[in-house]
Amino acid sequence: MTKKVFKFITVDNVEKEEAFLEEMANQGWFFSKYASLRYHFEQGEPAEYTYCIDYKEEAGDEEEYLSLFEDAGWEHVYAYPILSGKWMYFRKAVKEGAPKEAIFTDDASMIALWKTIRSRWTWFGGSAILMLIVVGIATLLASAYLIGSIFTFAVALFLIVLYGKMYIRITRKIKLRS
């Protein structure tokens, strides 16, 4: 049996996404893929897993990268391509009495990840916002459809707030680890 769950989690909340996937596994729903803001799960016996998410830039070394994780006992679950890279989802069964494991064991690696994510998403968000503002101005100047321009500017404002929040949260995470 499969299950799809709509959930909107921004890139600055990777920990929240990992906790969500772990809770679903505890209920017997195992993450299989992500598409169209929906998490897809396969049903099974409830089990305790640690999920970890990494952002892998396209570098042509994916086999070596995946092998490194496999050698450390991590199972690659899914790769979600976006912004010249992929969100890589891994899981590992929790051993009874053992502490929760993580794929990033040092601050330098985590800081590098957060800086990459911040850079990619700031560029992407800034481009989208700029494009919406240009379209809004063009719509306002070229026609009498004031409502269309207002809607476009409202979407741009929403994205400014959303990407601003993500930028600030990621910057705080970097500073906490520095």
UniProtKB/TrEMBL annotation:
Keywords: Membrane, Transmembrane, Transmembrane helix. The chain crosses the membrane at residues 121-141, 147-168. InterPro entries: DUF2812. Pfam families: DUF2812. This is DUF2812 domain-containing protein.
